[in-house]
Structure formats: structure tokens, C-alpha cells
């Protein structure tokens, strides 16, 4: 077996650029996913609010029940039929964000429901509205419980983002494939790409551990 | 703190008329009527499952009774299942303090913030003013020096005293206590009862569900015995020394000589 990493070294700046794009699309998608997830998670708290609950549940059903790649292709190749042409990066961000949002919404809902009902009752009996009680009392406690599963979601998102290379986005995966196209060194290049993904996910999990530690110092000694 | 100044010719602070409440097909409360005058302390006793908590929770619409009406400070908060509009209800709840068996302090806030959060967010007070008020209320329950602690660092008795301070910081017209000492170790019950006694002697209007017969005897103006409805009511000495209803007799016997 002869391994030749020269193409990797020669293409390193391209790979690093790709890594930056991967981080960008992932962070943008995570921001979208958290916003959507928060709204959908709250919308799914009360099945008695039929319409809101129904819309939110349909969203979760679709985005959790279909492949991410199909969702990305629908956005990128499907929408142009309605004359909606989104830039590839935007498609990637929205696709990843909506997909991940369906999982985040379950994280949000689970965390909120895990807060003792007495908290809501105490807040309401002081005269807080439902929204105030949510914002001031429930969510700050729930967020702490969301952090570890959100961390896992973030790491999954980094890895899933490799699929956006199929939308012509020049992410890490795409840059790797470009090098392979001219050098035919698949093994070496994919190993290098895997290693860079590993570095990204490791950094992400370290950051998350730090955040968790910070939040715990913030007084939630429960 | 004394509540009565707005009601010179002594209108009731809280009035309940022919209240009825069911959970599904199970009727938990029926035909309950009650008047609580300013500065009055009403103690509610009764066996487990007799609807004491439900009655208290109806008084601030945490539960909605299907029949009858509840009037607080001249406002009908609920009439035959129709509740006051959300905004007015929230405004009225500020005047009704509630203390829970399980404290329900906010674990992510310091003791000071637990007490200050209401004045700050609901009464529109400035941060510094709200904190001053909170410190004053904490001093009143003997916990001024624990202002910076988190609830998890307190004993049960201290937690309940913070919960009382939190309710007091809203300057309520009436306070509802649902078995405030039942979750406490016996040696911590006294400190909470003492705070409640002090409140009563300052003229706070109180409705207290409790099994502390000593407290009822010393502090209550009236004792209600419940079993789905009010089966007996009167001065504590009458109820305790000369109970009329056979179910009152057996209930008193069961708690005065347990086991
Ligand atoms: N949310 C609810 N849904 C259904 N049934 C309920 C609910 N809350 C209370 N009940 C029922 O209503 C009855 C009265 O309950 P409640 O808690 O008011 O009694 P209690 O007198 O406070 O009892 P305890 O001394 O045990 O606290 C009980 O039979 C209880 O099972
Ligand atoms: Mg009860």
C-alpha cells in the first residue's frame, strides 16, 4: 500500500476554506434550528390548542420522517419550479436548520415539561401571565436542561452538513472531492477530511462543556 | 400591611357563594359558601381528599369551579364557570398571596430575587426599590442574611419563610396557605408557624389549610371542617371541644391520637 499525502498538503488551503464554510453553514443552521425549535417546542406543549399544535406537529412529522438529503434537494432543485431560486448556501442553511429544528423542538418541549408544574403555578398565582411565567421562570430553568442535548444536536449538525456539498456549496466535503477529482487520492483525502471534521466536532464539544460548566456555576445547584 | 383601610364598613375580602367543582364526573366540592372579613383568619381542616386544596386553588382560579361564584375585594373572579378576563385576573391574583406545601421557590433565582421578582416585573418597581422591599420582607421572616443564597441551600423551614416573604412582597389583601408545614421536619414547623402568627396579629387576612391544631386554636377566628362541603364551622374552641358532626368527631380523633 502506498500512501501519498502530497495532494492533501497542496490542497490544504482549499480544505481549510471548506472547513470555514462548514462552520458557517452549521452555525447559521443551528441559529435557525434553535429559533424554529423553540417556537415549535412551545407550540407543541398544549394539544388542546388544536391549530397551533397541529401545524407544529405536522412540521415535526415531515422533517423527522424524511431524509435530510431529500429535503435539501426539494429546496435546491424543487423550489426553482415556482421560480424561487435561493442561493445554494441559503438552501443549505434552511434545509439543515429546518431538519435540525424538528429535533430541537422535541428537546425544548421535553425540557419545559420536565420543569415541575408548581413553578408555573407559583408564577401564575403571583399574577404573571402565561408568557411572563414562561420567560421569567420556566425557560431559564429549562434552557439549562436543554444544553447537553443541544450540544449533541450541534455535533450531529456538523456531520450532517457534509450533505450540502451536493448543493454545490464549497464546504469541507466539497473541497475534498475537488482535490480527489484531480489527484485520484480518495483514501488520503477522505482521511484528511475526516480528521478535520473530527477536530471541528471535538472543539464544539469542548465549547459546550465549558458553557455547561458556566451555567451550573450560575446557581442551579439542584 | 393592614388590609382593611379600603373597606371602612367591613365588607368581606373574599366571598364564596354556592361553589361547586368537579373533575370530570367526580364532584369534589359542592354547596360551599364562605365569607372572610378583613383581618380574619380562617382555618380549614378535613380528611385527605376532602377538597381543601381544591377550594384554595379555586380562590385564585388555579382551578375553575363550574358552579357558584367567588368575589375578592368586590370583584367577581368567577361566576358559574365564567372567569374574569385574563388581564384582570392576573391583576387580581397579585392581591391574593399563595403559599404552597412544596414551597415552589424559583431555583434559578437567589432568595432576594425570588422575593423581588414580583414587585419588579408585576408592580413595575425599579430594581433597587424592589430589592429594598424584598430585603424588608426577608427581614420580617428572619432571613435577611440569606438574601444571596439559592433556594437549594436553605432548609425546608427557611424555604417556606422565603415563600411567605415572596407572597408578602406583592402586598396581598389576603393570603392562602395550603398545608404550609406538612412537608417540613417536625423541628422546623415552629419557625414557620411563628411567622404566620405574627402575620395574623398584624391583621393579615388569611385562609389556612393545616393540620396544626395548636395553630388553629391560637390564631383562627373560625374553623371550617370540610368533606366535599363545609360540614361544620365555628370558633376553634367550639369545634375542638364540642364537635357536632360525627365525621368531625372521628376526624379530630384520628389526628389528635394518631396510630
Ligand atoms: N387535577 C385533578 N384532577 C382530577 N382529580 C383531582 C385533581 N385535583 C384533585 N383531584 C381530586 O379531588 C379530590 C380533592 O382533592 P384535594 O387535593 O382538594 O384534597 P385535599 O383535601 O387537599 O387532600 P389532602 O389533605 O390530601 O391534601 C381528591 O379526590 C383528588 O383526587
Ligand atoms: Mg391538599
TrEMBL record, chain A:
Single GO cellular component term: ATP-binding cassette (ABC) transporter complex
Gene Ontology BP term (one): amino acid transport
Topology class, membrane: Multi-pass membrane protein
Principal location class: membrane
InterPro entries documented for this protein: AA_ABC_transptr_permease_3TM, ArtM/GltK/GlnP/TcyL/YhdX-like, MetI-like, MetI-like_sf
Residues annotated as domain ABC transmembrane type-1: 19-208
Signal listed as a keyword: no
GO molecular function terms noted in the UniProt entry: transmembrane transporter activity
Membrane-spanning residues: 15-40, 52-78, 84-104, 189-211
Compartments where found: Cell inner membrane; Cell membrane
Keywords from the UniProt entry: Amino-acid transport, Cell membrane, Membrane, Transmembrane, Transmembrane helix, Transport
Protein family (similarity comment): Belongs to the binding-protein-dependent transport system permease family. HisMQ subfamily.
Described purpose of this protein according to its UniProt entry: Part of the binding-protein-dependent transport system for glutamine; probably responsible for the translocation of the substrate across the membrane.
This protein's name: Putative glutamine transport system permease protein GlnP
TrEMBL record, chain B:
Domain of life where this protein originates: Bacteria
GO cellular component terms, semicolon-separated: plasma membrane
ABC transporter domain: residues covered: 14-252
Primary subcellular site in the record, as a coarse category: membrane
Membrane topology: Peripheral membrane protein
GO MF entries: ABC-type amino acid transporter activity; ATP binding; ATP hydrolysis activity
Subcellular location: Cell membrane
Transmembrane segments: none
Annotated keywords: Amino-acid transport, ATP-binding, Cell membrane, Membrane, Nucleotide-binding, Transport
ATP-binding found in the keyword field: yes
InterPro entries, alphabetized: AAA+_ATPase (IPR003593), ABC_ATPase_HisP-typ (IPR030679), ABC_transporter-like_ATP-bd (IPR003439), ABC_transporter-like_CS (IPR017871), MetN_ABC_transporter-like (IPR050086), P-loop_NTPase (IPR027417)
Entry's family note: Belongs to the ABC transporter superfamily.
Protein name per UniProt: Amino acid ABC transporter ATP-binding protein (PAAT family)
Organism: Breoghania corrubedonensis
